[in-house]
Amino acid sequence: MKFIFTFSIFLFFSCAYAQEHSQFVPFKFEGKLGLLNVSGTELIPPDAFVDGPGNYDVVGDFQSYIIAKNEGEDQVIDARSGEEQFVGRLDRTCGLLRINKDSYYHFKVNGNSVLLNSAGSPIQLTTSYKKIEPNHDSWDNGSVDDKQYLWALKDDETYDVLAANDGFTPVNSLPKFESFDLVYGINVNAPLTLIGFVLGSKTAIQRTFGQKYGIPESSYTIEVYNTSFKKLGTTVYEHEAIAKLFNQKIELRGSMIPPPGMANQILIPQNRTIVLNNEFSLIPATDDPGQLVLVNTQQGNAPVLGNDHFDYRYISTSKNLEALLQIRHSETGTFFYFDFDGLYFPKGVPLIPKKYRQWN
Questions:
Q1: Residues 133-180 pLDDT 10s
Q2: Quick one: which of 322, 261, 38 has its CA closest to 134?
Q3: What range does the record give for the signal peptide (predicted)?
């Protein structure tokens, strides 16, 4: 079914909004995904363009979108042109990969492993990997001296270590191994520092794929390496035994407590005003201080969305932890973006078609 919409609110922006910005933005209505063109000239209605569940990922700072389809396929759409870049199978276990200031996603495309880069063209890897370990938590990046590594699982259930700073090529000096852990040095009056890695069998290092914490020690043999992957020796997977090879106090990542997550901060009403900029604020509702209302302070605190109940969260980007809002209508689950500074989308416009604003 085709839909025709007129968005007079967006026409003002059609000439002023430069093409270097993202021209398409996702929204959800009744659990279905749609794409809105910010110029108002085109709209892809909810689920009209994709046969799938409506799940999506934002690549980089709104450079493109990964749209989930049925049959396990995923479509990558350029956020500026709205055109398809390619179709593959996203490694959802891996999810977002953080490499320095860039972000990557691992895909299988025609049997090959491909990394989608937010800042450039897709990169085809030399080996087809079953999946790549997630590293979105900054404690898990394996970063030392600005070098970062990815841990990629092959079809034979052994790993390659990929050097991100060397074109994601495998470290070729390592033996075959089925499991691993990271070793951190304990410093006086300084943060923990990554100082090495331990490699071994699944029996020795009893972790499941993607597991970072809560790995039990064992009396089975493992190999110990420094951060240059120089072998320091062989010992059992026990804290004290490994510390002796490094000749210092250590902490195994598998025995650490998980750090708190800070991305995409949820805004919790605390009966106080949250100033977004000199034009927009979130203020407590007069009849319910436990609810926030998005208002235009330059127009006498006029509600931007009416007085219905909404949930708000900051969406973080590489440049700003509080870049824009994602807004969810509490009753219907409809959600959309609101860029209060105009960094990525037209400033101060609820980025959902008027037809779907059922709360008005």
A1: 998 765 545 566 677 899 999 999 999 999 988 999 999 999 999 999
A2: 261
A3: 1-18
